[in-house]
Amino acid sequence: MRDATGGAVNIFIIVVFIVFALGYMAFNVNYTKAFRMKDKVISAYEKYNGECTTDCVAELTNYANSIGYQPDTITCPTGGVVKENGYCVLLTKQESYADRKTKCYYRIVTKVNIEIPIIQYVTTFSAFHVTGDTKAIEIENECCNGVVNGVTTLNAAASEKCKSGE
Fold it and tell me: Are 133 and 105 in contact, with CB atoms under 8 Å apart?
């Protein structure tokens, strides 16, 4: 009888180990997708000077489909805007200079899309989000592109100039 109980315990330990190993691998695959998407969004924002319009959106959509990045929902930090490809954009810093040049910094947040019902509903663990910042994007006028798209700015005077078209 002792051998039968020992065999069941060994099988249980093996099953638990396999579940943890597979869960770890699934998380790593999805984390890699979110990390690659974040990098692509950052390079697209830098390429298009912070203005993600039709060409930029098409490029990001094609890339998201090619790597299989399709998160169900994403929650943004305060002031962030959720974009259609499942990422969040937040204008984090805006520096204006006397020569009418402005440096803009954007924070990009992507979601690691892993569905573990118990963990999803119990906690909002930050390891399920990948965050990155763009380099300084220098533009000629006094407002960072994206303010009109709902991204809040740290410089209210520059934001009003953007809205009025000055």
Answer: yes
